[in-house]
Design brief:
The chain has about 260 residues and is of the alpha/beta class. About 30% of the residues lie in helices and about 15% in strands. The chain has 6 helices and 11 strands. It has helices spanning about 50-55, 65-75, 120-140, 175-185, 205-215, 235-255; strands spanning about 20, 30-35, 80, 105, 110, 150-155, 160, 160-165, 170, 195, 220-225.
């Protein structure tokens, strides 16, 4: 597909591609939300999506940003998030991944991602992924003490016709310390929890952990919440109320608490 997007991506009033909230937060954690937004730059003409697809879980993680914001406040942690739909570029995928710019997501066709030129793909990477990557790297590097890295996601209750019973998925890559600690902390929460469900590292979903946390030796975990539990403000508040003390327990277990961050 050839369009104006071959020469520019974000318009003058559409940026930045990524932002950080509460950069000076005192918690020993950094929150990340790669799929926070369904925004598509005007230059991409909606990617040719149907209205249903543009508002669906394919375009973003419904409720994930609202949950991340609640946790940002509850934990007093920085939150780095993408402001662009993952159908433009999925910031939780490396540029070489086929689904970094997917031509189809579950049942939804993405016409604007079909047969992209190399220049158009490079523009998506430069305009969306690199600013997000650099902002997250800068945020982690600015912490005066090693933080726990927590990525926040949501998933649809039914995927490709299959119903998912799990309510809280706790995922890890090669470092499973924080995931197993969070699973222990979730005992008695009343949530249906599972390790590496409904996805796992084998599905290519732990790129942020692999690219940013593991090379720095930082404890890390990916949280997946079933999105029907985040469908309104009450649901988001309830889930944040459950998760915040669990994550605080993980920090107490894995992150030294005696040298507080100064800003």
């Amino acid at each position: 597909m050839t369009s104006a997007a071959d020469s520019f991506l974000l318009g003058p009033t559409e940026g930045p591609a990524a932002r950080v909230l509460n950069a000076g937060g005192q918690s020993r954690a950094v929150l990340v939300c790669e799929h926070a937004s369904r925004f598509i730059p005007a230059a991409l003409d909606g990617l040719g999506l149907s209205q249903t697809a543009a508002r669906s879980h394919a375009a973003w993680d419904l409720g994930a940003f609202e949950l991340a914001v609640e946790l940002c406040g509850a934990l007093d942690a920085p939150l780095v998030y993408s402001r662009i739909s993952r159908l433009v570029y999925d910031c939780n995928r490396p540029p070489e991944a086929p689904d970094a710019i997917p031509p189809k997501s579950e049942i939804f066709a993405v016409p604007g991602n079909v047969d992209l030129s190399e220049a158009a793909r490079d523009l998506r990477e430069a305009g969306v992924y690199l600013p997000f990557r650099e902002l997250l790297s800068d945020t982690l590097n600015a912490r005066l003490a090693p933080p726990l890295v927590i990525t926040v996601h949501s998933f649809t209750p039914v995927y490709l016709g299959q119903t998912r019973e799990v309510e809280l998925g706790i995922l890890h890559d090669t470092d499973d310390r924080a995931a197993r600690a969070l699973l222990r902390a979730a005992e008695g929460s009343g949530l249906a929890c599972a390790l590496n469900e409904p996805y796992s590292a084998a599905d290519g979903v732990t790129h942020t952990l692999r690219a940013h946390a593991i090379p720095r030796g930082l404890p890390n975990v990916m949280i997946e919440v079933r999105n029907d539990l985040l469908s309104d403000a009450a649901g988001v508040n309830r889930m944040a109320g459950l998760l915040a003390p669990m994550l605080a327990r993980v920090m107490q277990e894995l992150v030294p608490q005696d040298d507080r961050i100064e800003t």
